[in-house]
Amino acid sequence: METFQSLLRNELARALGAAGLPPAGEVTPATDARFGDYQTNAALILAKQRGENPRQLAQKIIDHLSVDDLAEPPTIAGPGFINFALKPDALAEQAGQLLRDDRLGVARAEKRHRIVIDFGSPNVAKPMHVGHIRSLVLGDALARIATFLGHDVIRDNHIGDWGTQFGMVIYGWKNLLDRAALARDPIAELVRIYKTANELGKSDPAVLDACRNELVKLQAGDEENLSIWNECVALSTREFEAAYDILDIHYDIQRGESFYNDRLPAVVDRLLQSGVAEMSEGAVCVFFRDIPELAERPCIVRKSDGGFNYATTDVATIDYRIRDLGADTVWIETGAPQQLHFRQIFEIARREGYTADFRHITHGSILGEDRKLMKTRSGENVALRDVLDEAVVRARKIVEQKNPDLAEEEKNAIAQTIGIGAVKYADLSQYRMTDYIFSWDRMLSLQGNTAPYLQNAYVRIRSIFRKAGEEFVLPAELVLTEPAEFNLAKRLTQFAEIVPQVLNDFRPNLLANYLFELANAFHAFYEACPVLKADEPARATRLALCELAARTLQQGLDLLGIDVPEKM
Ligand code: ARG
Question: What are phi and psi of 335, to 5 degrees?
Answer without folding.
Answer: -65, 160
